[in-house]
Specification:
The chain is α+β, with helices and mostly antiparallel strands. The protein has one domain: HupH hydrogenase expression protein, C-terminal domain (Ribosomal Protein S8, Chain: A, domain 1), CATH 3.30.1370.140. It has a five-stranded antiparallel β-sheet with strand order 1-5-4-3-2.
Length: 140
């Protein structure tokens, strides 16, 4: 498990206005993510951070998300509103944006791991797979 940074992806920040306090918060969050990636690489320990639970302005969050960039993997999940999930330009660092039924963003999460928790199948779901496959086989 290693992370790499693709420096060929451009980062544009001119439209994000943050305060000095916002800049400090963004720096602290990036350091925390950096430490989480290192811990994940060494131990497999996953990490999650709810940006909407922190005292950040929408500009602070926008700037942080622009700094993290958007990588190659994008996932859409539709349950009680739509969720947008994407890997950042830093391998194993993911952004998860949950929206409600009115298409309003309610939560923005950062996760460190091979794949976000919300995308992984639950063990209870896996137990039902045999029955579902058998039903498909029986229908042939």
């Amino acid at each position: 498990m290693s992370s790499k940074h693709n420096s060929s992806i451009p980062i544009y920040l001119q439209d994000c206005q943050t305060t000095a306090a916002g800049q400090q918060a963004i720096r602290a969050i990036l350091i925390e993510i950096q430490q989480a990636v290192k811990a994940y690489d060494k131990t497999g320990k996953r990490y999650g951070l709810d940006l909407t639970a922190l005292p950040l302005s929408e500009f602070d969050i926008a700037k942080l998300l622009k700094l993290l960039g958007q990588g190659e993997i994008n996932i859409r999940l539709s349950t009680m509103g739509e969720s947008e999930i994407y890997e950042t330009i830093i391998d194993t660092v993911w952004v998860i944006k949950h929206k409600n039924e009115n298409d309003k963003v309610t939560t923005i999460l950062i996760e460190v791991g091979a794949i976000p928790d919300i995308v992984q199948s639950e063990i209870e779901d896996i137990d039902e797979i045999d029955d579902r496959i058998q039903e498909i086989l029986d229908s042939l």
